[in-house]
């Protein structure tokens, strides 16, 4: 069996690490396509090195651009790969433009499609990611769901065939790499941090970065927090911050430390050791939950609704008053229910793909 896997963004590298390993152990041939959606060392290559992900068979090096241009360039490149490789399956992850391009290339060539992290819904149609994940789910032949809520979401849309509840591949990765991270990472010492003595923040979604008022409000809130805030800055976010004219757009605030993006192992240590996480990232909401770190989500909705319903995640949008209030008052309950499987999602995905009948 041959599978062409399409990846291109930082969260997909994490999800793919253990699935690629499971494929190798099962004797499945994988042809790995990197679209180049994320291309900086800190957003791409470091993940391949730290997580022992096989080097891509091809890097399309598409890079940044408007959604239409970027997706079109990926589609052209992926289609050429599929015509040459003639795989049995195309595998895509998550909800990025790389995901959508891989989906369209597969269905146009009548190649079976598998979607890892299927069934997520934020129900916010202003998010490009929401369109990408919905379209991919309705095209996929196999849908690998991380949670029961994801399975239920698909059922509401009439999708029941080929649906498999396997758990979350990011949970697999945290279980495998968190201890390694503690042993290898020196990020806390390098930044002069004490466990539970700082907040960790990330901002990258277009609804925040492309809206100057939202970005201003978030930075203003960070500036008023009376404890250290460590902020690994996405390259695109840094550009948007530099375009702000106000003091809140600069890196001079005594409590706010802007740093370059960090590798996976360093990020795991930062997440696990933080007193609280402030983010608009879906992946970090989950990782906060895995580690038992309270999370404030800088959005008005989330596709990981179970983290909110369990009391470990709270939504503030880009409201500076809400952000500050929650930083000072948010205390999760003692219990953290298990939502994300047993840590064997990658193995289950490999096993389903190997079955003669996969319906």
General description of the model:
The protein has 359 residues and is an alpha/beta fold. The chain has 2 domains: 2-168 and 341-354, Rossmann fold (3-Layer(aba) Sandwich); 176-329, Glycogen Phosphorylase B (Rossmann fold, 3-Layer(aba) Sandwich), CATH 3.40.50.2000. The chain has 16 helices and 13 strands. The protein has helices spanning 10-26, 45-50, 67-85, 97-108, 128-139, 148-156, 169-184, 187-191, 206-209, 212-224, 235-243, 264-273, 282-291, 305-309, 320-329, 345-354, and strands at residues 2-7, 29-34, 58-59, 89-93, 112-116, 142-145, 163-165, 199-202, 229-232, 256-259, 276-279, 295-297, 313-315. The strands form 2 sheets. Strands 3-2-1-4-5-6-7 form a 7-stranded parallel β-sheet, sandwiched between helices. The chain has a 6-stranded parallel β-sheet with strand order 10-9-8-11-12-13, sandwiched between helices. Helix 13 links the parallel strand 11 (276-279) and strand 12 (295-297). The longest helix is centred in the first third of the chain and has 19 residues, at 67-85. The model is unreliable at 247-251 (pLDDT under 50).
